[in-house]
Design brief:
single chain, alpha/beta, BirA Bifunctional Protein, domain 2, globular
Length: 256
């Protein structure tokens, strides 16, 4: 692929702001206003929740409990299921599909991103691998009511560590543009999702979430800065431009 990639270490923000930023970038890519491919790395501060675009917040979350606790949440532009964002590395990738983009098709883009992420983690000493099938070993079965959370199931081309899900990737295509969003777990804070999920046995769900997911923290030691992921990716993408893409901040501000 000939499109130049920009690798952007963006800042921290709450869930609504981060999802609004990705939505604005996706709109710009769909309008043909985002040149090349953008790989954005970011974090959530304070921690919060995102849902897949087809999920019903009233069905998936206890909204009154979230409001009382002051937890911010947002719906992603991509699909997938509920995620609690804390102790993780988060990314989004935006591009056009085709010979000048990240890949010719959404399926090829999914595989390419998954492979790149696995290789970057391996460079950091994390023995991550691509998922071989549609469901990871040990993942809990779907329950009645709300959908199983994101890290309770594994899709092809997502990332496994010792047979359990380490990183999830969701994507969406619109008008020839692709948005991918993904998270790499560093610790087990993702189990806090159980505190705000309408299930009868929260402790059981917490145990399931912990058992079905892997975390990279033990392989990374005490240094878990997002800079480490950026540098590992930059080593695999020697032609990438590192830094904020020109005009993106102004474009997003106009669309808010």
């Amino acid at each position: 692929m000939s499109a130049r990639l920009t690798l952007w270490l963006d800042g921290a923000a709450d869930a609504p702001r981060q999802m609004a930023r990705d939505a604005a970038l996706f709109e710009r890519a769909a309008a043909g206003e985002l040149p090349g491919t953008l790989l954005r790395l970011f974090t959530f501060d304070p921690p919060g929740i995102t849902l897949g675009r087809s999920q019903d917040p009233a069905r998936e979350l206890e909204l009154e409990s979230l409001e009382r606790a002051g937890v911010r949440w947002a719906v992603r532009a991509t699909g997938g299921r509920a995620i609690w964002h804390e102790e993780e590395w988060t990314f989004s990738l935006l591009t056009r599909l085709g010979p000048d983009g990240w890949a010719d098709s959404a399926a090829a883009a999914y595989e390419r991103t998954g492979r790149l992420l696995a290789q970057a983690l391996q460079r950091l000493g994390v023995p991550a691998v691509l998922a071989p099938g549609s469901r990871g070993p040990g993942a809990p079965r779907a329950r009645a009511g709300s959908a199983p959370p994101c890290f309770a199931s594994t899709a092809r081309h997502e990332i496994l560590l010792e047979g359990r899900k380490l990183a999830g990737i969701a994507q969406r295509v619109s008008r020839g543009a692709l948005l991918q969003q993904g998270s790499v777990l560093l610790g087990h804070a993702h189990t806090r999702l159980a505190d705000f999920t309408p299930v009868a046995d929260r402790e059981a769900l917490r145990r399931e979430l912990r058992a079905s997911a892997a975390v990279a923290g033990p392989w990374l030691g005490g240094e878990r800065s997002l800079l480490r992921l950026r540098d590992a990716l930059a080593g695999l993408l020697p032609d990438a431009r590192v830094g904020a893409p020109d005009g993106v901040e102004a474009s997003i501000a106009r669309r808010r």
